[in-house]
Here is the input.
Amino acid sequence: MSDENKKNTMPEEEQLSLNDDRRVKVVSPGALVVKRFFRNRIAVVGLVMLAAMFLFSFLGGALIPYGQDEQFYTYTFMEKEYVAATRNDDLRYAVREGGEFGTIYQAQFLLAQIKGETEFSYRDASFSLKEEGPDFYSIWDSEGNILAIAYKDIVHAADGMPELSFNAKYEALKAYLGGGASFTADGVEYTLSEHDILQDGVEVAYVSRVVVQSKVSGVVISRDFKERLEEALDSGTEKFAYTDAAGEESEYTITYDASAKVWSVTQATKTYVYSVYGSPSKEHPLGTDKNGMDMLTRLMYGGRVSLMVGFIVVFIETVIGVILGGLAGYFGRWVDNLIMRIVDVFYCIPSMPLLIILGAAMDGMNVDPQIRMIYLMLVLGFLGWPGVARLVRGQILSLREQEFMTATEACGIRVSRRIFRHLIPNVIPQLIVTCTMGLGSTIITEATLSFLGLGVKFPFASWGNIINDVNNSFVMTNYWFIWIPAGVCLLTAVLGFNFVGDGLRDAFDPKMKR
Amino acid sequence: MRKYIIKRILLSVLILFCATFVIYIVLRCLPGNYVETMAIQLSTKPGAKSFEEWMAQLSVTYGLDKGPIEGYFVQIGNMLKGNFGDSWRWTVPVIEKFNDVIWLSFVMGGIAFVLELLIAIPLGVVAATKQYSRADYAITAGAVLGYYAAKRFSLPTFFFATLLKLVFAVHLGWFDISGLVGRNYAQLDAMGQFLDKANHLVLPITTLVIVSIGGLMRYTRTNMLEVLNSDYIRTARAKGLSEKKVIYHHAFRNTLIPLVTIVGGSLPSLFSGALITETLFSIPGIGYTSYHSMVVGDIPFSMFYMTFMAILTLAGNLIADILYAVVDPRVRIA
Here is the structure.
């Protein structure tokens, strides 16, 4: 014994004998395993990763105020074509009530007007024309009655007013272009103030060259808006704001199409839409997905689904595997042979293709997403048990030959009790390791299936089907926040399970020195 | 030895028979299959027969009128005669389509496999000799990234593939996002076409290597550690041999025993193609082809592919077991 040891034990333990229990620290095998486990840095890191993922998924989902499939809305400004405006450059015609001035006559008139003649005729009808003002002509028939007028400045009826009569239009234009302040037509007195035509102080019509056409069905363009638009057109501005009668203000943008000579006015309307692929913000730290759902919430619920699927699948695997493996290992002979051949058959059935076919079939049958998830877990569990069965059988084959089993036999303990109380507990360490590793690979398999769109389906989230969005390469390139976090979560969980599994294997192994 | 091999092969045939039976029953029992879709399409055409009539006619054409068990024996009989039927999805004989696509998968798998060996084994050895050092942690962390438990994918292949695409195809623009040939492939000369294909295979092969490298690396490390802890290594050290000689001469050679077994065992799987990777990168190999057959419920092709996979698995196990006995003289096969 070295000096150092002596010094340590000297002061108070002088009276203890060498084989006294108090001299050595007694640690149970379990505590040893725990000690070895925590000495392994990677295993501890894995444990922390797992704890983080569990807290994130289960606690996070409970704490976050949003629901799994709660959709969020946002206002966006959408440019919608509102009106089209043209400045009238053609002569337009108004014909007296009961008169006839068809297109052929109009063409003849145009010829005469261009040549500067005052008379024109077609076949047996003859007309005379008179220039009454700039771009304003009156046409008279052979009997000296006014037949029609041709004009470029248009008399529009005011909002909610009937169209003016032919006579009134004629008189109005004459007065407007001639600079008069009032006129009489059909025995009614009208006054003119700038463009407006008033009757007893009420506006009944106005004169303007601009023709405004509504592009939105069911919307009547108000006089007020037209004036505002004309002002904007005259000043050459591209944008103007206008507050309508209901008090709603909107932005309008004017674009001029030179070939069609049309100003097209678009209205920026506030539209209430799903917030699709919203960028990360204070309310949504990871943005929103293609359905306008909060990404962080989806990620948390997706974690729940992924982890739950993993646990349930591994549970099913383990139960089937332990029972069949235990039976095979304990009974040996033909039981063992039969079960092991079944295991072989399962081993050589390629599981991924089978899962893809089943997934595609469930797509075809339109299975409800919830039931689909259950089927998925059952199938995964049913395909995964042979590994566990092989492990359990191998261990039991050797354990069965040991003395304690002879003792159980001698005591007359039931067979089922011998297997499940005395043999299986001895396999538990290896089983825990396999299950931990199995959790990781199950989560990956589920994620791969969901990624292909054949696993967990909307409205349920899973880490795999969140990443599924990258099948749209626009999402892949532009919206990192949709798929990178899900991938990182997946990776963290899987790595966590593998690290912990590795650590446990090392810790359970009595040969390990550290 | 010969007796053992014959016994194993006979057993494999029996297992294969059971496995194909299970596969066939599953495929047959699925509703919403290709034939139904086709019947729906045909019956919606103007002046067409009703759905039921089409269904009956197509069932006879595709041999679905018999019961599943009888159908299975007809199918297996045809398969034994080398007649695998016509693929519904690709409208050519299954075997013809298979010949078209398998070699691409094999080349891809082969290159990935060689790279995997060249990278994984040295790294595994280093990790083992420097156990619990910083290098070991780094390599193990990297290895676990690519850890697979016996099956091919245990790692989110799709996530890595997408990351690679984002970095190398979208941001750096070195490769195309998917496909085997570029858009100006037809104008290139023979060399250019070869290079074009090679360029398109870089990302898929990288994905394959990253995904599967971890398993082999960990396997090497575990076996190397086991060997390093054995008595004869202590003896070698006690003799005063240099550390280099101990590790590379005594330890590594013994590590090779299980390695040869696992490497030999995975040779057949080179033909199985990479289902997910090929699909993600739209590489028209066996994996991609069968994925697209499977999602539409093309029974002949799916059946053929799954049988093929089952044979590969069985062959792999058999080769591994035989190699184990060949390489390690201590193992005796009864």
